[in-house]
């Protein structure tokens, strides 16, 4: 398979399922699920051919495991990262003692005063390892890895969730829990 085409489909799926389903007049339910047949039928608005086999390939081979099918593969959704309101029905989970966040130097002064904010997303995204945080931060320049004292946050009452693709999620990370 042409990796450029696969990457393009993955990026477009991310945009549609996480941020803008109305772009192709796609309906998501309250949990962010889209009907697979409807998605495939409406994908041709971008002059891209998408069938179930190609969609399955994209979902199974996405390096960040951004998407999931339901059990019978009739519905698909993004695992996290939504800027639209969806209920992912994630269970609260006790986090590792330390988690990591990849960012870039130009936003450090804001983070030092405001902590990590979810901004337009539903949650702040954290990684279990420095390597993943480094990749995330590196998408926008030279990465800076922040260490989050998630264990202390949890003990103080902050809630954490683990998405289907192992991204740690929380509503906010106050600056006092961040090691710069």
Automatic annotation (TrEMBL):
Short name of one Pfam family: PTS_2-RNA
Gene3D superfamilies xref list: 3.20.170.30, RNA 2'-phosphotransferase, Tpt1/KptA family, N-terminal domain
NAD found in the keyword field: yes
Enzyme Commission numbers on file: 2.7.1.-
GO biological process, one term: tRNA splicing, via endonucleolytic cleavage and ligation
Coiled coil, from the record: none
GO molecular function: NAD+ poly-ADP-ribosyltransferase activity; tRNA 2'-phosphotransferase activity
Enzyme class: transferase
Keywords for this protein: NAD, Transferase
Stated role: Removes the 2'-phosphate from RNA via an intermediate in which the phosphate is ADP-ribosylated by NAD followed by a presumed transesterification to release the RNA and generate ADP-ribose 1''-2''-cyclic phosphate (APPR>P). May function as an ADP-ribosylase.
The family this protein is said to belong to: Belongs to the KptA/TPT1 family.
Protein name: Probable RNA 2'-phosphotransferase
High-level lineage: Bacteria, Pseudomonadati, Bacteroidota, Sphingobacteriia, Sphingobacteriales
């Amino acid at each position: 398979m042409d990796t450029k085409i696969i990457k393009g489909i993955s990026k477009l799926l991310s945009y549609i399922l996480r941020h803008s389903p109305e772009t192709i007049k796609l309906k998501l339910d309250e949990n962010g699920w889209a009907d697979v047949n409807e998605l495939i039928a409406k994908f041709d608005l971008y002059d891209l051919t998408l069938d179930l086999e190609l969609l399955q390939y994209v979902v199974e081979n996405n390096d960040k495991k951004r998407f999931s099918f339901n059990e019978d593969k009739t519905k698909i959704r993004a695992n996290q990262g939504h800027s639209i309101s969806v209920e992912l029905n994630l269970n609260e989970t006790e986090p590792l003692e330390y988690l990591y966040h990849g960012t870039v130097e130009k936003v450090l002064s804001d983070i030092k005063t405001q902590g990590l904010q979810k901004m337009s997303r539903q949650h702040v995204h954290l990684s279990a390892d420095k390597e993943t945080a480094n990749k995330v931060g590196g998408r926008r320049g030279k990465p800076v890895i922040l260490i989050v004292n998630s264990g202390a946050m949890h003990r103080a009452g902050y809630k954490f969730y683990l998405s289907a693709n192992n991204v740690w999620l929380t509503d906010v990370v106050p600056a006092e829990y961040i090691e710069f």
